[in-house]
Amino acid sequence: GVTHIAAAAGAPTVAIFGPSDPMVWASRAQNVRVVETPDRSSEALRSLSVETVWDRIASLLAER
Question: Are 44 and 18 contacting, i.e. CB atoms less than 8 angstroms apart?
Fold first, then answer.
């Protein structure tokens, strides 16, 4: 919900996905970047590194 509102408002948005499928649930707006975990287990977010998320944020901001 919140990422869709941010995307609709035009804000640069990084959406983090764990067990849910970003192909189904991610916003398709041009200002959205998706970070997804390597697997879809219930513990998936624990395997996502801060560096991976930060790199996606940095690349989104560099595009602006």
Answer: yes
